[in-house]
Amino acid sequence: FFYFVRLCLDKILLQCVLQSRTLSGADAINALRPFYFAVHPDFFGQHPKEREVNENSLKRLNGYLENLQKPGFRSFKPTQLTFYVREREPNSSNVQESFSASGFRAVSFTLHTRDLLSTVLDILNSCSLSTEHVQSLNLNSQPRKEARSAVNRPIKWDKTYYSFTGFKDPEEELEQAHRVETTLLSWLDDNEASAVEKLKKSLPLRKELERLKMELSQELQLSDIRWQRSWGIAHRCSQLHSLGRLVQQRPEILENVKGHTVVFTDRSGMSAAGHIMLGTTDVHHHWTKIFERLPNYYKLQKRLLLLEDRISQLLGGIQVVYIEELQPLLTLEEYFETLNSFCNKLRDSRLPFHPHSLRGLQMILESDRYAPSLHEFGHFMIPTVCNPAALQWFIISKAQEARENLKRKEEMMITEKELINTSTERFSLDRLYKEPSVSSAQMIDCCKRLLEESLPYLQGMHLCVSHFYSVLQDGDLCIPWNWK
Q1: Domain DUF4461 spans what residues (predicted)?
Q2: Residue of 452, 456, 377, 457 lying closest to 422 (CA atoms)
Q3: Tag placement on the chain: N or C end, fewer CB within 10 Å?
Q4: pLDDT digits over 194-240, tens only?
């Protein structure tokens, strides 16, 4: 009995010590500033894949941190996160890292701590960031002297304590979490009912969205209507209603949109790909100005095409392309300035490329690189500040490899489409799609392994291949491409 009382008193004392070392929510944000700076999506504007992975992981991290601050919060699930950070020399850390072709390293780690301080330190250490500034914060992050002197020994609770009190053993919970890895079947078992309920609620809105999209596309004779981000169905319907009201109020200004694509995104203008961008935070007045400027945008677009042709002539016939999946969403003005600057640089250097020697190859321009590279799909990724001599040697030496990659890309795209169609039919899915950050190779691998399974849970569902497990607000099921 006395031993049990001693254990209880020790636990109370330890809780007091831990409370003296906890961080407030504001302190946690301040302590994580170096981390947020290293992974913030705004710094990955030139790299859509890395940006989207970081956006999704930050949402899940914020949810984890919010749960830790809830009063009485006890139960939790270990959360695995992946972030892209600037590439550096690999270290000997046991954190799982992989290096991408885009100049960043992917860092994966699992959060399983129950207090903010330990969580903050785990995040910083996992990303090899300094933790010294955490100790210098103006907070009670160090134990009180009285408590430190009383508890200066490591405490390991006897198993009988948990038997008597009914409390859960944190060590046992953690060991069980490490032993039991989330599998696709177990996750579907736990989340199918929630996804079905959300999907049923969203069906009327989905029909409304399709109706609005079809009516506006026909009325304005648009090629397509798209969204840059994964907004919910209700949000998308609201945006289409806004566009519909503008059509009714000012039908004369919409005569120049025939045959074009409208993209709802973060800002208004015309994109480098020639799409009409409507900023979702802008009011009708801003959208009206964009439609009024369309004739001027079309003139600038013709000048841009001439610039691309000129660059192609200077580089032996290689085609300059803008690929939305691999490049940031640039405005037409921004892209024109980039092309113009690069063209002037090439013209001054007078590189001796043989005419048409590189015909059939493709290149994209990037403003945040210093060395050229070759994408796995055969596109040359050329920095605008690249040294002309180095550029010439790189393109010539990699030309054959680029042609092989382009051919492999065509084969891979065909395979991916076939596997998506087969999987959709096999599991009676309503829709199967992937996030832009998932490559074709990853999608192919995912579909091949799905087809080896029996998954009755997926009938009639919307399945999105991503980097993590999640049920979206409209009932879409997100699974990682490398599911177990």
Answers
A1: 182-484
A2: 452
A3: N
A4: 999 999 999 999 999 999 999 999 999 999 999 987 778 999 999 99
CA nearest neighbour of 61 among 128, 116, 133: 116
Instruction: For 137-279, list the strands marked E by DSSP.
Output: 224-227, 261-265, 269-270, 276-279
CB 480 within 8 A of CB 207: no
Q: How many other β-carbons are positioned within 10 Å of the β-carbon of residue 163?
A: 10
Phi and psi (nearest 5°) for 90?
-60, 145
Count of residues in the chain: 484
User: Which among 192, 189, 64 has a CA at the least distance from the CA of 123?
Assistant: 64
pTM: 0.64
Quote the Cα angle for 63-69-74, to 5°: 90
With beta carbons less than 8 A apart as the criterion, state whether 17 and 143 touch.
yes
Query: Which DSSP letter does residue 271 get?
Result: B
- Among 62-76, 108-122, 149-163, 319-333, the range scoring the smallest mean pLDDT is 149-163
Query: Which sign, positive or negative, has the C-alpha torsion 369, 265, 108, 132?
Result: positive
Cβ count within 10 A of residue 342: 21
- Would you state the pLDDT for residue 427? 94
Q: Residue 181 has what pLDDT?
A: 67
Q: How far apart are the first and last CA of the chain?
A: 47
SS3 464: strand
